[in-house]
């Protein structure tokens, strides 16, 4: 007797608790990715010259948030001196908010299956704040993605994945080395 995967999945999906379980799992996945993404901004802004150049013209104190509507997880970040600092989970008076409409819209972006440009194009995100500043934030998000994700994922996430030279690969290695301590520091 052959096990029919479609029949098994249908029977699992018909269980009364499955929709609630599925929503909790999506929420947890996005929350975990944002918990890594926040400290990653700090590490990349400390180690990568391109990001420092991108934010050099920003005024100190510019805050932006990335989150999920209606009550999904969110993080707030702020530009201080020549780096971006992670302020923690939730909304801490951001000037700019990049908000996904729901967990289903956010999941492909946070799992590296689609990029933020694609999410904007597919109307999966809402922007609250200055649109020009939001595009600057989106460029910074793409720089962070370039240093976080491996090359095979970057092809899906970025329109044109950057060609990295040796010094950029060294910076990427430094980011990988600094990400775990940064996450632990923010968890404690």
Q: Can you offer a commentary on this structure?
A:
This protein has helices spanning 5-13, 18-47, 49-55, 103-110, 116-121, 131-148, 151-157, 166-187, and strands at residues 63-68, 74-80, 83-89, 96-100, 125-128. It is an alpha+beta fold and 188 residues long. It has eight helices and five strands. The protein has one domain: SCP2 sterol-binding domain (Nonspecific Lipid-transfer Protein, Chain A), CATH 3.30.1050.
Q: Per DSSP, what share of the residues sits in E-state strands of 2 or more residues? A: 15-25%
CATH topology: Nonspecific Lipid-transfer Protein, Chain A
CA radius of gyration is 18 Å
Major sheet strand order: 3-2-1-4-5
The count of β-strands is 5
- Model regions low in confidence, pLDDT < 50 over at least 5 residues: none
Structural class: alpha+beta
Order of helices and strands: HHHEEEEHHEHHH
Major sheet size, sense and barrel closure: 5 strands, mixed
pLDDT averaged over residues: 89
| Count of individual domains | 1
CATH superfamily: SCP2 sterol-binding domain
* Basic shape: globular
From the N-terminal CA to the C-terminal CA, the straight-line distance is 52 Å
Oligomer: single chain
- Summed up, the helix count is 8
Task: Provide the helix percentage.
Answer: 55-70%
CATH class: Alpha Beta
